[in-house]
Amino acid sequence: MSQRDRVSAAAWLVVRNAHTAEDIFQNVALKAMTKGVQFESVGALMSWAFITARREGIDWLRRQKNAPICLDNTILELLEQEWADEAAAGDIRGQALRDCLEDLPVKSRDLLKRRYFDGHACEAVAEQLGVRLDAIYKRLSRLHQALKKCIETKLEQPAS
Average pLDDT for residues 31-41, to the nearest whole number? Predict the structure, then answer.
């Protein structure tokens, strides 16, 4: 809730309507509380919340047949990338995560990409990869733990 304004603002950038942005924030908060998902850090929760708010905003726009779309998806993605780049520029932890992701095997990066960057539900990822849902959950859990350990190790190393 302490990040309410930021998440609502992310939704507003897509829908350009304060009331709809508030509705989207409430939907995102409800999803976060009812999905039974636990986030490893506040950063992970906020990343998920921003992406979810953006996608809900885009879905809302698609449902509005006569509502003008203010920004093209490409522009939204460029803005999102720019904000991510600015936030990560001074973020040592973000750099450690990027380094750790680069060190992962291709299959692991592909799984993370499908789940988090492409935004597919675990069920869809399991279907795409032809594996059982519980296997996806286990793989993601192991990857989360490995990334956490890797990041902590990199943060403990002296800067070079």
Answer: 74
Amino acid 149: pLDDT? 92
**Does the pLDDT at position 95 exceed 50?**
yes
Query: At which residue do the structure tokens 């885009």 appear?
Result: 58
Q: How far apart, in whole angstroms, are the C-alpha atoms of residue 9 and residue 59?
A: 16
Among the three residues 72, 89, 106, which one is the final residue of a domain in this structure?
89
What pTM was computed for the model?
0.45
Measured distance CA(136)–CA(126) in Å, rounded = 6
Do 99 and 158 lie in one domain? The reply is yes
Q: What is the DSSP letter of 69?
A: P
Instruction: Give the range of the structural domain holding residue 137, as residue numbers without chain letter.
Output: 92-160
Q: Give residue-wise pLDDT tens across range 106-133.
A: 999 999 888 888 888 889 999 999 999 9
Contacts of 91 (CB under 8 A, 6+ apart): none
